[in-house]
Amino acid sequence: MACPKDFDNNVENKWCPGCGNHAILGSIKDALAKLGLSPQEVLIVSGIGQAAKTPHYLNCNFFHGLHGRALPVATGAKTANHKLTILVNSGDGDCYGEGGNHFMNAIRRNLDITLLVHDNKVYGLTKGQASPTSDLHMITRAQPHGVILEPFAPLAVALALKAGFVARGYAGDTEHLSMIIQEGVRHRGFSLIDILQPCVSFNHVNTYQWYGQRVYDLSKDAHDSSDYMAAMVKARQWGDKIPIGILYREESLSFTDRIDGLKDGPLVDRKYDASRLQKLLAEF
Ligand SMILES: Cc1ncc(C[n+]2csc(CCOP(=O)(O)OP(=O)(O)O)c2C)c(N)n1
Ligand code: SF4
């Protein structure tokens, strides 16, 4: 029987006390154990930022790369070994800002990975500048007169691109978050889970108290996750009421399912014939 402790390591945690990332980390371990996965079967990929430190605190395979570039690494890893369970941990800046182009194309490819975006609505690691998801008029030390741009709407954008699994979690409800992560991993294809993550040091607007007054669970609201238009309406809902849960789910062939060359098994298991490579190189 797998247990969350299997995914513990003894690395000292550097996140601020009270940061929503602690809860997300706990939900990831819980979800992986409940899925019956062992650390060897899991790869976590991240970019740069506070959220991107998540794999430092997990006992499993991991790759910590460049800012905004976690999804290309995950694409390569999944193509090389499509038997691996791959999760990507990203921040709202890392994923929707610096990595926005990769976000769009990973969805188009329907890569079979689970993307967890720790959405704290600021650039946490660099001390709280506005991020793509910061609310209009939010005041930060770098935006003392308030944010002048409309926020990016990740769930609506993912739906517009026909992502097959679109969900929102909340760091203040770890059991619910674990359940969504399990469903996201089970989904064969691209899964986006945008997670409301309070940053207690730099975001004094979207706090636990603020979310506590607004967040509601879609599963208790008779939401039909196969209804695309209903999902789009929920994806645009923000303010007095904020839905969490699975907005939309529909399976279709994933990226690696569509590649004929992978039908005989993962590339990593193939025999490697160096002479064929030499012949190929000689042509150039
Ligand atoms: C190409 C590049 N641009 C900018 C930076 C500086 N930088 C490092 S972390 C970061 C912000 C991270 O914010 P976010 O992705 O929202 O994650 P958080 O720290 O809030 O979890 C920035 C701008 C960088 N490392 N590389
Ligand atoms: S700065 Fe914000 S995101 Fe970073 S560890 Fe502290 S509370 Fe968490």
What does this structure look like?
The protein is 30% helix and 17% strand. The chain is an alpha/beta fold. The chain has a single domain (4-282), classed as Thiamin diphosphate (ThDP)-binding fold, Pyr/PP domains (Rossmann fold, 3-Layer(aba) Sandwich). The strands form two sheets. An eight-stranded mixed sheet has the order 2-1-3-4-8-7-10-9, with helices on both faces. Helix 8 (228-235) links the parallel strand 9 and strand 10 (242-249). The radius of gyration is 19 Å and the shape is globular. Bound molecules: thiamine diphosphate (TPP) and iron/sulfur cluster. Thiamine diphosphate binds next to helix 3 and strand 5.
**What fraction strand?**
15-25%
Number of strands: 10
Overall pLDDT:
97
Instruction: Describe the global form.
Output: globular
- Our count of helices gives 9
Sequence of secondary-structure elements: HEEHEHHEEEHEHEHEHEH
Low-confidence stretches: none
Largest sheet: 8 strands, mixed
| Termini separation | 52 Å
Helix/strand/pairing category: alpha/beta
| Overall tally of structural domains | 1
CATH H-level superfamily title: Thiamin diphosphate (ThDP)-binding fold, Pyr/PP domains
Amount of helix: 25-40%
The CATH topology assignment is Rossmann fold
